[in-house]
Amino acid sequence: MTASLPYALTAELTHRCPLHCPYCSNPIELQKRESELSTGEWLSVLEQANDLGVAQVHFTGGEPLLRPDLERLVRRARELGLYVNLITSGVGLTDERINRLVEAGIDSIQLSVQAASAELADSIAGFRAYELKRQAAQRIRERGLPLHMNVVLHRANLHQIEEIIELCADWGAERLELANAQYYGWALRNVNELLPRREQLQAAEAAYKRALERFGRRIELIWILPDYYEDFPKPCMGGWGRLSLTIAPDGRVLPCTASSDIRSLTFENVKERELAWIWHDSPSFNAYRGYDWMPEPCRSCERRELDYGGCRCQAFQLTGDARATDPVCVRSPHRGIVADRVGSVEQGKAGTPDYAYRGR
Amino acid sequence: MSSWALSERPRLRSPGRLKYDKARQSDLLLLPERVVELNEAAGAILWLCDGNRSIAQLIQELEAKYGQTGLADDIVDFLASAEERGWLER
């Protein structure tokens, strides 16, 4: 079939990170420094991506600031006319570093925050990052760059949602992603520690709606749905291999950042193949395009064009079959897996979380 | 928001940017977290929204480029909707 062209490239420059967040979207098996693409390989990737139709590049990780060649990559991306965004923990964003990034042409920076209070934020991150983040936000605003922020929401910080929104507004954020945890990789390993109760979630959503009224156009608030509590799955990535692509630190090309966990697929590497071939012709990118691959109940479902059967990574992780209907869907024969998990949280006693921290 | 006066000089709202994409052979509006594929008319107007040209100049240039007159109303309407979507600032 004929593929559409990708708009966005997520470039995971490294899996190394000073933070150890228990919901990290990186895979359980983190790539080491030795297997990371070289500067020259990333420069070639940027050129190939631009030729393919990519218009935006998001440099992320791990912590992308750990790559000393970040500024060179930003500069090349800007020369190509790409919109360049940096997704960072803020750790390492010194005065010198931000000056070099501005000079290289960075368009915007997205800064993560873990909670509203330093104590809770640092215990979630497993690192004393809060104060460094506050300074990073200040530096971003002082350079006149748009500050975008994100927070992953889960059982231990949902009660602080109003304070988190206030904090980000105070720090000068123009946009805040309130991202309910999605359960892949590290987050799936820690799901019993992270999954909130329904009541807690409803209170947080109500607080988000009040904030929408209160802040109006002053800050753009984006609520990313907690899919375990939904009846229908999210239209993951707007369809497999349809709008965007991710390149892992070792050069493997993925439809999304979580998909390396799908063991039934082999993902091609930019060290061996042209990016355009991988996007248009590789078996992994064509595996779940269109509708022909779908089993029932998706195949005959009227919602298939809305949600593409949900998330392939979630289907694989929970059922062992990446083609299966996303178990979040009430029509999935595997819905019980999600329902049981939610049920056990409702009945469980929430004590102090005992996270498996990444990179420890 | 009031409508635009012909003397105003619209510009893309920072950090938005335009890119001609060879692969799609069309203009793209690049916004944080979003890419908008523009039709030819929208692209032609937005490329002129550089904060230096007045709307009156912009209309004149586009009428000359396309060999047409009477484009003013359509252009002003487009600018209003583009501002409403957060693409432009004054």
Automatic annotation (TrEMBL), chain A:
Cofactor: [4Fe-4S] cluster
Domain Radical SAM core stretches: 3-225
Binding note for cofactor: Binds 1 [4Fe-4S] cluster. The cluster is coordinated with 3 cysteines and an exchangeable S-adenosyl-L-methionine.
Gene: pqqE
Subunit structure: Interacts with PqqD. The interaction is necessary for activity of PqqE.
Job description of the protein: Catalyzes the cross-linking of a glutamate residue and a tyrosine residue in the PqqA protein as part of the biosynthesis of pyrroloquinoline quinone (PQQ).
Keyword Protein transport attached: no
EC annotation from Swiss-Prot or TrEMBL: 1.21.98.4
Pathway: Cofactor biosynthesis; pyrroloquinoline quinone biosynthesis
Molecular function per GO: 4 iron, 4 sulfur cluster binding; cyclase activity; iron ion binding; oxidoreductase activity; S-adenosyl-L-methionine binding
Keywords assigned: 4Fe-4S, Iron, Iron-sulfur, Metal-binding, Oxidoreductase, PQQ biosynthesis, S-adenosyl-L-methionine
KW Endoplasmic reticulum (keyword) present: no
Matching Gene3D superfamilies: Aldolase class I (3.20.20.70)
UniProt-annotated binding residues for [4Fe-4S] cluster: C17, C21, C24
Taxonomic source organism: Cohnella thailandensis
Catalysed reaction equations from the record: [PQQ precursor protein] + S-adenosyl-L-methionine = E-Y cross-linked-[PQQ precursor protein] + 5'-deoxyadenosine + L-methionine + H(+)
GO BP annotations listed: pyrroloquinoline quinone biosynthetic process
Domain of life: Bacteria
Entries under InterPro entries matching the protein: 4Fe4S-binding_SPASM_dom, AdoMet-like_SPASM_containing, Aldolase_TIM, Elp3/MiaA/NifB-like_rSAM, PQQ_synth_PqqE_bac, PqqE-like, Radical_SAM_PqqE_MftC-like, rSAM
Name under which the protein is recorded: PqqA peptide cyclase
Pfam families (alphabetical): Radical_SAM, SPASM
UniProtKB/TrEMBL annotation, chain B:
Keyword Ribonucleoprotein: no
UniProt keyword annotation of Transcription present: no
Key words of the record: PQQ biosynthesis
Pfam families: PqqD (PF05402)
GO molecular function: quinone binding
Pathway membership: Cofactor biosynthesis; pyrroloquinoline quinone biosynthesis
InterPro entries per record: PQQD, PqqD_bac, PqqD_sf
Listed GO biological process terms: pyrroloquinoline quinone biosynthetic process
Subunit and interaction comment: Monomer. Interacts with PqqE.
Name of the protein in its database record: Pyrroloquinoline quinone biosynthesis peptide chaperone PqqD
